[in-house]
Amino acid sequence: MQLPIPYFHIVFTTDHALNTLFRDHKRAMYDLLFQTASEVLQAKAKAELGCELGITAVLHTWGQQIEEHIHLHCIVTGGGLRLDRQKWVKPKSKHYLLNVVELSAAYRDKLLAGIERLVQRQEMVLADEAAEAALSSLLAELRAKKWEVFIKPFANPDTVTAYLSRYVHPVAISNYRLESMEKGLVRFRYFDNRERAEVGGKGKEKVLTLTGEEFIRRFLL
């Protein structure tokens, strides 16, 4: 059951340069991702609204082209309990929850610092000193990049549960998206995420052709 309040859809995406690290250290990295997203959201809500948010998060590890695309889908309450738990605090408007630019930077910095901490504490063991040096260089590059957290209000709170359910028990690709499988090639339909961000909505549907081997490799990931 949903509360009679606004809800926001928030997506925390990881840089693809971290894919190998996630693949080799799943438990440590996924725990860190969930913890980081929760902590930066609650910290921003405390600073801007003086409240504690309600958060439901689901891990999604692929994109429309079934490539590795590790991100969290979060459903977040529009406002929350005041820190003394005596009153419900509303957001500034049903279209605005938190400063997304500051949230994005905080998420980037906290996630990268968390990775360094895991290595320092040997909770994530790398192959050798060369691997540690390469990781240190990579993290420095990622800190210099702009990361973008996605925040959008749900048009109707009743859609929240239905939306989230699609991410709880999915497969990487459904049969209806398959166009053909012949001569060692697989063709399937997808929506381009980058185009979708530019035009809004789903953008134009496209068809991707992969070799059977590449299709299976992506599906197994």
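The above is record 1. Record 2 follows with the same two-line structure.
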Amino acid sequence: MQSIKGLVIAAIIIAVVIVGGIFFFAKQNPNTSNSTPTPTATQQAENATVITLTKTGFTPNNITVKAGTTVKWVNNSGAVGQVDSDPHPVHTSYPAMNFQPFSEGSSVELVFDKAGTYHYHNHLNPSQTGTITVQ
């Protein structure tokens, strides 16, 4: 009886350590934020252009912005998403646009300083794609 009680206590301690570690490391990701998602698909707010990840893909999926614009991807898909540069799966066209997975209700953002055309996709659903043209 005493050894079963000890095993139960040890299992509870291990579970608490694991759950605490998950929360700690999830908050350490510098590319995500827990801000409230914007209800509109795209808007100019605080010099940021917002792209929303939905269940069906990015909205809008093609945008044109001026150099120096911050682009913010907000996840309203109901699942984890991951913005990465093309081509899939190597993501080599623009490594600065390769983010870690971000959960429902969170966002990632990037300032586009150089003119060019940048193609990206949701790594977790590569059929969801988008293009950012920077002038």
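Residues 2-26 form the longest helix (25 residues).
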